[in-house]
Queue: 2 jobs
Job 1
Amino acid sequence: MVSHVGAAFPHSFFLVFSKAAPCEGKVKMNYNFDRVIDRRNTDSVKYMVVPGMQPGTLPLWVADMDFPAPECVTRALVEKSRHGIFGYSRSGEDYFQALYHWYDRRFGWKVKEEWLIQTPGVVNAVNIALQAFTREGDHVIIQEPVYYPFAGSIRQSGRQVVVSQLSYDDGHYTMDFQDFEKKILDNQVKLYILCNPHNPIGRVWTKEELTQVGEICLRHGVTVVSDEIHQDFVYPGHRHQVFADISPALAEISVTCTAPSKTFNLAGLQISNIFIPNERLRTQYMEEMRRRGYTPPGIMGIVACRAAYTGGEDWLEALKVYLKGNIDFVRGYLASRLPMIRLVEPEGTYLIWLDCASLGMPGEDLDKFILKKARLWLDGGTMFGAGGDGFQRINIACPRSVLEKALDQLYEAVQGL
């Protein structure tokens, strides 16, 4: 066995499944995503109180969900806790088999055990890749507006950020391939950080789009770090394409970053699964991990990931139905009560992108208005880089009653303008 550790419109929604749910064994399973759980005073980053925050402020910012993990996960963690020994750990063959069957069944991607490396998270994985595949002063390209730790990680590592801004037209985003290739040539770019599905705009890039951007990278010797952490949240009419699975050539230049954290609300357990088919790149990556003194993953992350991928699929499918209902609710609410705010139609993720340009406020003023007047803690668009001004990102992975309250507060604030 190969080591994986741096070396080797209903307002109320209550869904009942008639078939057996793996999380509960051979019984009928009820999933109630409408239940509101108080997360205050639980050491939650999402619900921390910051200076100047108004009473009644709703936190819908950071990408964790207000739903408990599937019962199969909590049961596995409780059983491990009762064992009572939490020493150094290493995942086994059953862990890899859980990953293999998940990716094969959902995406048709057949991973190999030797490709797998575990890290504490995808941001950590991106930072390792920056150190492993580039040198100080090298240029790294991203497509803004995009997940803001990408630019932060590039700058903090002494590399240079190159931005190929996504094109926004009539509520839809596309890649500017001509600009992308020109920026690579002009700056001798060494590394590309791809976000698919894209955070915050919600695009699920098509195979044709990914093929075109991948061919540009192949022509110019650019390594691709593909953040696919939101791959399990893709809505009807769209399909997630694993970048590395498009062709053997693209697999050879790819580092694919995945995790159960977004899918099953496990971010605090700090485990991600990184796949690197190219042996040379994989060796460079592991050498960088050793330089950092990285130790094996925690046992609870291993236990939770294995349990989620073997028993949590029915829960996930029910959750996606609920989230689709939340998107429909937001769309309808904006159309009827807040038509000056536009929903950028999400193809994936549970983070939706709101076009607030018609409110006529520059970024900082808009952020203050949302926080102080609407009493909502969202992620302001400017933090996502070029093209983010005038937008807000909102996390809809919450009970619908909470989402409705948030929109009501936004409506009241806008009415007061």
Note: The radius of gyration is 21 Å.
Job 2
Amino acid sequence: MKDFIITTALWSVLIITALIPMGANAAPELSARDIMEKNFFASKIKALKTDSTMVLINDKGQQRERKNTTLLKLQTNGVDSKLLVKFSTPTDIKGTGFLQIEHSDNDDDLWIYLPALNKSRRLVANNKKDSFVGSDFSYGDISLPKVDQYRHSLLRTEAIDQHDSYVIESIPANNAVKSNSGYSKKVTWVRKDTFLEAKVEYYDLSGRLLKTQLTTNHQRVESDPQRWFALHREMTNHQTGHKTVLRFDKIESGVLTPDEMFTTRTIERE
């Protein structure tokens, strides 16, 4: 009986000792900021060309379609991107162009070209909350904001469309970010497998739900490191009943565009 007690005690010590290193070496939980940083880099694709269709749907269900081509290129710092969008149809928007050059340590350069004015117009930070060519996306929604422009909190984890996701609340870090974005906060569902946003709720400056964006059909476009792209985005404005669907009909990764293409001269070209 004595030997049995000693053996049992010994096994207990061995089990506890074995478990200690496992706990000590376990991977730490991701913080809310870590998750949003992974979300930021998940779509930082080296080079991409897309053809897409933008569908504007009013509160009566009437639709208008717009076609555009987009060029995307990651800058040498691996953080900032260059983006050029050019609309081809319909006639009333043909030739409209948009150019964005991101800067980690400064405000991004934003330019819009409207054929009717026959010149490019530089947008300032406060224009980020304005509608992107009449859609429910704002200029600030076109690309993800810098992570530290918001304070992030992990609310919970839950499944969305059968994909486990983190639910992150993001509050503007200062009044300038709040004013320029037009949002008092955002709530983002970040998928655990791709780290792309599956759903984003945007709240106006009064704290009311303003818009919801849904993204589906996440496609891996680069493997090392893994980079993803959502082929379908849908933005609904709950306060106007208007909706914009952005469908990417064709994507080509690895299409290296010369830096000279990302200029106002290019977006002004008919």
Note: The chain has four helices and 13 strands.
